[in-house]
Amino acid sequence: MSLTVNPVSTPINTEGPVILPRQFAYLTELSPADNIKYIQVRVYRKWTGVKVPGFTPTNFSCILLDKKGSAVQANADLKEKDRFDRDLQINNVYKIQGFGFERTDSWGKTLDNDFTLTFGKYTQIDQLTDTDYPYHYFNFAAFNELNARLEKKNPILTGQIQLSATSATRYYFNPDVQETSELLAAYNKANASGPHLQVQTERLTSWDQEKTRNRVPLGTLLQIDPKTQQRVLFTQEATVLQIDTGHHWYYQKCDECGGKLTYGYLHGQCHQYGTKPNPENRMVITDGTGNALMSCFTPQTDGLIKDVNALLNEVENKDPAITPPAILALQNTRHVFQFQFATPTTKGPPTFILKKIMDNPPMALPAASAGPSSPPVLQSITETDEHYTPPPVTPTVTQDTPADAPATTSYPPELGAKKQLFPPSTSEEHDRSPKKQKNE
């Protein structure tokens, strides 16, 4: 999918890309896929987001109100905090344009909106004198509506959980009880280190040897600690058991900040137009000893699927949640994968990242022909006798040569002869008079 304006194909293309005029919109009329709107709002609240428990600053946030009483949250990166903290003052009214959108996180949701505005370097802020804007935002709910507003998927535990003790309480560490020894043995077994692997870290020049380098069963790799083998490449011949259709098969990457864009959301705060699609497929492979989840990115998918742009041109629905049939056709096919461990997570089994498909050797460059493309040029070399002296060279007479000038003949310098660097001129030789001998 391409959300760009091609300046080459634009009819009027004399100086640069065509910038569409922006239109006014209320907060309820904004769409994450629309990048040509501007808003007029009052700054209701602003704060700096922090990460607990260290209270490390993460971003700048604010709540904006429009004339209809609607509210929306806006965020900016920490590097832009000083600018927006200066330009956006509480209770002031501004015209804001050049912003983007992002999906609202459940943990930082302050309003009922499904999206949050994002401010950046292309965001323009102009202060207005109109004061006919509400100063407060209210969203009342009846008592019987509270249950529907509760986020049941993300419960939050309030209160304290702790052990209470009195002066008569006694603590026993490592007691000699049969039940505790069984628990300790089970804990040590679960946290025992996996098998030790002998791996080859150097890349092999032979394709057949590289194809079988570090051929380790998936069942063994799933038992070891991924942190100990982060940069090691493994190979395995496996079958694609399933394509993860619950995961988006591609995502759009912002050309400016490099961030991952949610489908239908634009980074208007980074630039006017421009996104870059990148494939992000996930599949489950098996070799008979275990099932592993593998993520695939371009260009490592060469040999499996077409280029992402070619696939997007073939499908009608560009929604990344709908996997194209060309990718689903990979199920139940067998390939030789070269992969490495993905960044380990706190929970779940280890996952892998595809590095190369090694079904077929790479195409070799065309070999040079046996003979030259053009016949060789034979150079004739005339051998002369060592004592042979070439004839003298007589200069040709030109128009600049006087008619009565005597013909001079120049001889080639003899071998081993020395050349005088500063020969005396003729006039200097005639004018030089002999020195008189000094008589004492």
From TrEMBL:
The keyword DNA-binding applies. Residues 427-440 have a biased composition (Basic and acidic residues). Keywords: DNA-binding. Residues 395-413 have a biased composition (Low complexity). Pfam families: DUF223. It comes from Artemisia annua. This is Replication protein A 70 kDa DNA-binding subunit B. Residues 24-126 form the Replication protein A 70 kDa DNA-binding subunit B/D first OB fold domain. It comes from the Eukaryota. The keyword DNA-binding applies.
